Amino acid sequence: MRVDGNVAGDDGNGRNGSGDSEISAAWARVKRRLRAELGEDVYASWFARLELEAVDGGTARLTVPTRFLKSWIESHYLDRVLTTFRAEVEAIARIEVGVRGTGAPTRPVTAPGASRPSPTSGPLARLQASPQPTPVAVAAVPEARPAEGGDLNGTPLDARLTFASFVVGRSNALAHAAAERVARHEGEGALYNPLYLHAGVGLGKTHLLHGIGHAARESGRRVIYLTADRFMYGFVNALKTQNALAYKERLRGIDLLILDDVQFIQGKSIQAEFGHTINALIDAGRQVVVASDRPPTELEALDERVRSRLAGGLVVEIGTLDEALRVSILTARLQAVRTAHPTFEVSPTVAAYVARAITANGRDLEGAVNRLLAHATLTGTAVTMETAETAIRDLVKNREPKRIKIEDIQKLVASRYNVSRSDILSERRTAAVVKPRQIAMYLSKVLTLRSLPEIGRRFGGRDHTTVLHAVRKIEKQIGEDAVLGDEVELLKRMLQD
């Protein structure tokens, strides 16, 4: 998209309601390009939570949730982000990064030779010239407050996220039971050490971690809850201030360490310290609880010894939300809202529709409740099926695609071709094994964001050139053999459903 004062579709007189959406679409393309160019692991670590807050003239204001992420992006990737953004929107001359919920961002980066533009029309001009309206905040539940007794400079626990407010269903019952057992354990030693929870976005793992922290503190145990960002920031800061030894000793002197989003831990020295810390705690009989978006075996950026230690405890996956659980979560959210807004009503029919339509995660369900509440509060009208469809349209339309794992591809292909997964990973070169192996490699390349070297490692440690040969061979055969093409398309549909 080219922006030179005007945005495509604007006639120069401001008669375009789609300008801001054009910028949002351009930002979405920027993030997709960063993901493709830098790889899934780097993108997930540093860019997944980078958001576009506003465009003011030629300055794009971006935000991240922590100071550590802000510092890292500014030090390593700011020029890359600016270059990529300018490729989509030429009027962007500067990038500023701030921390959400704090003051104005600092250290902007300006494109070489670019002056701050002053467009005369289009959304950039309107954003620059028009005062920004004060947003209307609609809260579904009371504002989060840091829990009492926070120690060791850990991340504060959210007072709302307790076991009592967690909605239990078939997909999360085992994780909930294990979390409660660990939190309320009063005997010597530790249970299921480490306890490792993994799930996709918005399925409740962070809620369980906070619940563990609250319950353990109530029993008098010394608890520290850290996000991966906070752990890395603390360690790097300790090195800079020459307090690394004290930082390590404080971490290792607690009863329960809770670490969230372990997949974001980067850097050899930080990973090594993380491994030493969990080893010291486990060997001393202290409890460790870890959460991630994938099982330990798939944390390819993490040191192998650390992955092995994490996999040595109890690993529990929190599954996707079935419809019954989504209804229960939605009902709980609506009840919480009614405590603050007694006149807010959503009929069972509308609630059932929302629970059927939104299948991705619990956060989208909470977002749907906020949208319905905003409609009822700001318009003063009842929530109908029609207004509900309009309110949640973006949540349904922009649902994240299913995350496909290489392991699932290998299992499905092995089953379809009557071989075992171990055959696919082996060195066997018989035709009965080579064909499904090459098909599985091809599907891994087209259905996941893994690089060729990563795929090769997941197929028995093969070289990336072997994967590239397999991908090209299957692509050629699909073009020549309609039967094989149909087989591969069927496998794709089965993996994506």
**Number of structural domains:** 4
**Low-pLDDT sequence parts:** 1-18, 103-109, 112-152
Helix- and strand-based class? alpha/beta
- Helix count equals 22
Q: CATH class of the largest domain, anyone?
A: Alpha Beta
The strand line-up of the biggest sheet is 6-7-8-5-9
Give me the Rg, rounded. Answer: 25 Å
State the helicity in percent bands. Answer: 40-55%
CATH 2nd-level architecture of the largest domain: 3-Layer(aba) Sandwich
CATH topology of the largest domain: Rossmann fold
Annotation, overall tally of beta strands: 9
What percentage of amino acids are in beta strands?
A: 5-15%
What is the mean predicted local confidence, pLDDT? 78
Largest sheet: 5 strands, parallel
CATH superfamily of the largest domain: P-loop containing nucleotide triphosphate hydrolases
- Please tell me what the overall shape is: globular
- Tell me the span between the first and last alpha carbons: 33 Å
Helix-strand blueprint:
Layout: H1 19-38, H2 40-46, E1 51-56, E2 59-64, H3 67-76, H4 78-88, E3 94-99, E4 106-110, H5 122-129, H6 173-184, E5 195-198, H7 205-218, E6 223-227, H8 228-240, H9 244-252, E7 256-260, H10 268-283, E8 287-292, H11 304-311, E9 314-317, H12 323-340, H13 348-357, H14 362-379, H15 385-391, H16 393-397, H17 406-416, H18 421-425, H19 431-447, H20 452-458, H21 464-480, H22 482-496
Parallel strand pairs: 2-3, 5-8, 5-9, 6-7, 7-8
Antiparallel strand pairs: 1-2, 3-4
Helix pairs in contact: 1-2, 1-4, 6-7, 8-9, 12-13, 12-14, 17-19, 19-21, 20-21, 21-22
Organism: Methylobacterium hispanicum
Binding site for ATP: 202, 204-206
Protein name: Chromosomal replication initiator protein DnaA
